[in-house]
Every structure is written in C-alpha cells, then in structure tokens.
C-alpha cells in the first residue's frame, strides 16, 4: 500500500489480526487496510526497511486470504479458473498466478500451493478476498470441487531478509527438518511447540516473499500465532530481527518491482500491460478471460514501466507523467528509495514512451522532475553491495 494513514485501532467496524495484542504491546501505529487494523510501523519506516535489507524483518500478514480448493478435479478446475496451468504443479511447490474476468482484467494476483494431489491453497490479497471467493465459486460448475475459505482460522507470519533462515533455525520451539533443501516457491511442513510443553502445532512453511529478499511465510492456526510471534522475536533479536509494518513492506516491494493490487493491477488492466504476460498460459484450451487476453488491450493501452529520478522529491500514486506538455501516463506507486537513495516510481505510460532510457517528467505538485524509464526491478538481492 502507498502512503498509509494512521488510524484508531478501536474502530468498531474494524477487523483485527490474531496478533493485534502483540502489536499494541510493541507500540505499533495502526492503519486501516481492507477493513483490517494492521501495524503500519513500530519505530520508523526507514529502520524497519533497512532491517529487512541487512538482517531480517518480522511481518504480520494475517489479513491475507487463504482459500482451499478441494476435489479430484481441483487441478483441472484451476486451469480453467486461473490464467496459469496449475494442474502440472507438483505437490510441495507453489506458483504465482492471476484470476481474470471475462474482459481479461485482473481480479487479483495470487500464490497457489499444491498441498496434495486433490487439494490446493489459493492465497489472495485481503482487499479481494470476497471477490476471489465469489469468482472461484461461480466457476465450479461441472468440476465437482469444494471451495473452503479458511482465512479466519489462519494466521500468517513472514520472516524476510538475509538472516531469515538463521532466525528460524535459532528459534528452539520451531522445527522444519527440510528447511535446508527448501527451494524458492516451495513449501514444507514444520512444527512449533508452545510454552510450558504445549503440544506441537503443524505449520506450512513456504519460501516465497514480497520484499525482494530471501524469506519464509508461516501459515498456522490462529490460536498458536501469538506464541510463535514472541518466540521468533526473542530468538531473532540477536540476529537483528525487527518487527516491521506495512509502510516498510510497501517500500521494499516497490524497490523489488513487485505490483500491488489497486495500484499496478486492477480489473481495468490486462496482464500484458503490467508486465505479467508470462503468467498467462494461452496454450490452454480455455480459461476465463482467454479471448480478451488474446485480443489484447489495444495498441494505445498504457504499460507498466520503472522510473528513476534525482534529488529527494518523490512522485506518488496518481501524479501525472509528462512528455513535453502532453500527459502520457500516471504514477501507480512512488517513493524515495531507502536502499538506493533516490526517487523511484512505477507508472503506466503510453507504449510510445516505455522504452528504457526514455526521458520523461514527473509532475510533483506542479513542479517538473526529470525521470528516466528503467527496467524493473530497481533492486535485487544479487546486486546488494
């Protein structure tokens, strides 16, 4: 999310993470995100961002939606319902995918885990939980699969950064025997034993992430989430682990060139415009949105680019992108990059102005800031100094 605003965590209509009391105890400031009161920061945005780039950060992302798809035809169903080919996904692996509408617009971007031959776990954005569940349920005809929304029973904790694995290995109550061999976009089973000899609880341990760093996502029942959070913090503190809020998560994903729904993605945007054409398997016989995707969004449809500028003034979402006196695009996300030290932005621009090296202007509250089109991402861990 961009420019999160601090709000009152006691709002009557708000939803709360199972870790909410932990965040309050740590002095977090909160923001409303898709109806959830989530920590936006604990100390400072910069400190939390740098912790992830140099050591490790601990994130509560329990607002994400977890939706199980169950049945003998689950793989074939997802091939039809989503843009990717999920039936070929091996048990123990994960895949990034998209769920489209009939016009080829993006309802949401997803991570899909294959749990067994006949069960998949679809992880959707918090703001799109209802839309994804509704779309999946509407597409179940003749497939004989069950859709089980497990969001309210599931907590999700992410450990991200170069020391993420060391943090997990240093947590005495946590055990994941196959962690050494866990590949990127794969998952394994771990266990966590709570305080005072409580019985062990099973955890799905995934190696994915949304920061551009190595890291792990831990899925478990809500009843054990607080104990796991405290255990990770205690074990990780000597390794530089810090709790991190959504503000740091946003600048981290922006540096890594990762799209955010409602900014770079939406129902008015086709995958090819967002640089996600590779995610769509058009060789499949059919899937929802196929005809529209094959027809394309049109020659003049704006496409996603990266932009870098000098100085300290950063363009924000909604700011115009100019070529001379012509508006040729709009910023979708922007910030002063904490890692790189200069302004960066993603923007949807007319394809005639999308070539890397093209010079454009960002209209920052009436001031023209020269910017250059660059390939995404802005940052990779391989290029870390």
UniProtKB/TrEMBL annotation:
Keywords: Aminotransferase, Methyltransferase, Transferase. InterPro entries: GcvT (IPR006223), GcvT/YgfZ/DmdA (IPR028896), GcvT/YgfZ_C (IPR029043), GcvT_bac (IPR022903), GcvT_C (IPR013977), GCVT_N (IPR006222), TrmE/GcvT-like (IPR027266). GO terms for biological process: glycine decarboxylation via glycine cleavage system; methylation. Substrate binds at residue 217. The keyword Methyltransferase applies. It catalyses: N(6)-[(R)-S(8)-aminomethyldihydrolipoyl]-L-lysyl-[protein] + (6S)-5,6,7,8-tetrahydrofolate = N(6)-[(R)-dihydrolipoyl]-L-lysyl-[protein] + (6R)-5,10-methylene-5,6,7,8-tetrahydrofolate + NH4(+). One of its GO terms (molecular function) is aminomethyltransferase activity. Residues 302-379 form the Aminomethyltransferase C-terminal domain. Coiled coil: none annotated. One of its GO terms (cellular component) is cytosol. It holds the Pfam family GCV_T. Residues 19-284 form the GCVT N-terminal domain. Its EC number is 2.1.2.10. The keyword Transferase applies. Belongs to the GcvT family. The glycine cleavage system is composed of four proteins: P, T, L and H. The glycine cleavage system catalyzes the degradation of glycine. This is Aminomethyltransferase. It comes from Microcella alkalica. The gene is gcvT.
């Amino acid at each position: 999310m961009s420019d999160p605003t601090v709000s009152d965590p006691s709002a009557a209509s708000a939803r709360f993470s199972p870790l909410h009391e932990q965040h309050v105890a740590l002095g977090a400031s909160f923001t409303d995100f898709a109806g959830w009161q989530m920590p936006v920061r604990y100390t400072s945005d910069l400190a939390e961002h740098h912790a992830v780039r140099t050591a490790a950060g601990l994130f509560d992302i329990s607002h994400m939606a977890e939706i199980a798809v169950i049945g003998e035809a689950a793989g074939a169903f997802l091939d039809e319902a989503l843009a990717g080919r999920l039936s070929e996904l091996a048990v123990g692996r994960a895949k990034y995918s998209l769920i489209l509408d009939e016009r080829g617009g993006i309802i949401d971007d997803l991570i899909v885990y294959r749990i067994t031959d006949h069960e998949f776990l679809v992880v959707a954005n918090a703001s799109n939980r209802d839309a994804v569940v509704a779309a999946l349920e509407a597409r179940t005809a003749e497939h004989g699969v069950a859709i089980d929304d497990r969001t309210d029973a599931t907590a999700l904790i992410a450990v991200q950064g170069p020391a993420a694995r060391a943090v997990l290995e240093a947590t005495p109550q946590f055990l994941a025997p196959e962690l050494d061999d866990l590949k990127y976009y794969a998952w394994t089973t771990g266990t966590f034993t709570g305080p005072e000899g409580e019985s062990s609880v099973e955890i799905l341990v995934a190696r994915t992430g949304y920061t551009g760093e190595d890291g792990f996502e831990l899925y478990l029942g809500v009843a054990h989430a607080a104990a796991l959070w405290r255990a990770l913090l205690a074990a990780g503190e000597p390794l530089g682990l810090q709790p991190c809020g959504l503000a740091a998560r946003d600048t981290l994903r922006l540096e890594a060139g990762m799209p955010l729904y409602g900014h770079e993605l939406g129902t008015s945007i086709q995958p090819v415009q967002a640089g996600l054409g590779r995610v769509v398997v058009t060789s499949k016989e059919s899937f929802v949105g196929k005809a529209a995707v094959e027809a394309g969004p049109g020659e003049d449809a704006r496409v996603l680019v990266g932009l870098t500028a000098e100085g300290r003034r950063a363009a924000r979402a909604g700011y115009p992108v100019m070529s001379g006196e012509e508006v040729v695009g709009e910023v979708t996300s922007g910030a002063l990059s904490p890692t790189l030290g200069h302004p960066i932005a993603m923007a949807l621009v007319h394809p005639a102005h999308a070539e890397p090296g093209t010079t454009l202007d960002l209209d920052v509250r009436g001031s023209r800031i020269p910017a250059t089109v660059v390939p995404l991402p802005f940052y990779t861990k391989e290029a870390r100094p």
